[in-house]
AGR3 protein (Chaetorhynchus papuensis), 166 residues
Amino acid sequence: IMLHSTLALSLLLIAVTSNFAMAIKKEKRAPQTLSRGWGDEITWVQTYEEGLYQAKKSNKPLMVIHHLEDCQYCQALKKAFAENEEIQEMAQNNFIMLNLMHETTDKNLSPDGQYVPRIMFVDPSLTVRADITGRYSNRLYTYEPQDMTFLIENMKKALRLIQTEL
């Protein structure tokens, strides 16, 4: 009987540890699927709510990228964004990152309409920074592939505003 229960316990332990190992592997792979091509080295949050929570907790701004799979402008922006080392590095280290293929219930994230691509910043105080805009007056929060320098400036601005205002 003793041998029997030891064997059962060992089998149970093996089952638990292999499941645990699989869970760890899964955990490591998660960001890749959430990145959707915007940057595999970046840790992406899954939902807007999670993004707000992480921003508040870490005192980092949240960057929200609205996009759609079949939108050519989104694809072009994604490529420029993913290939820009400075953006990738800042996104990795200084921001909570979220890319969304659907709208949130927060109307503050679409102050001038629900177009894509659209990039908005949310302060750790959970204030949507409607004052951090791109170059185009008809779509304030859109960026084009050639606007990466401008986006970098806006990312720096989002970081600067935290330090001065909070």
Q: What stands out?
A: The radius of gyration is 20 Å. The CA atoms of residues 61 and 123 lie 5 Å apart.
